[in-house]
Specification:
The protein has a single domain, classed as Orthogonal Bundle (Arc Repressor Mutant, subunit A). 67% of the residues lie in helices and 7% in strands. It has 6 helices and 2 strands, in the order ααααββαα. It has a two-stranded antiparallel ribbon. Helix 1 crosses helix 5. The longest helix is centred in the last third of the chain and has 24 residues.
Length: 150
Amino acid sequence: MAAESRLDEIVIPALLRSARGSYGQVIKRRLYASGFDDMPHNGPYVLGGMANHGMTPETLIRALGISKQAASQLIDVLVVRGYLSRAINPDDRRRMNLELTDRGRAAAAAVQDGIRWVDRELAKTLTSEEIHTLRKGLAALSDIREQDEA
């Protein structure tokens, strides 16, 4: 990490990109070590959000901001590779229900393990108040993005 005295010289987008990579790299290593070396890009986000936060695949994919075609391809890959199962919704036969398989839950556990590891490492450097402030700043940036999209 850059020396504290130079921190204000680094633009926030560069810091965000590098910081996001810390989670992504650790999650990828955890997935590979657990035998999930066929995970598609954005797959950890979808599986982790479903398993660890009870979110729907539709909500997660909308948050990714990808096209309907890319979303459909992602879901297809997750189904074909055994992370999700797909079944016709009994209440509305035009809709499909997507659920995590055992393989999907195991992959989501590896994702969560990676996130927790990075969080523990972060807590060695920042106080809980500083982590709260970091979360507050990131949430504000998310709000700006949502306002801009509206």
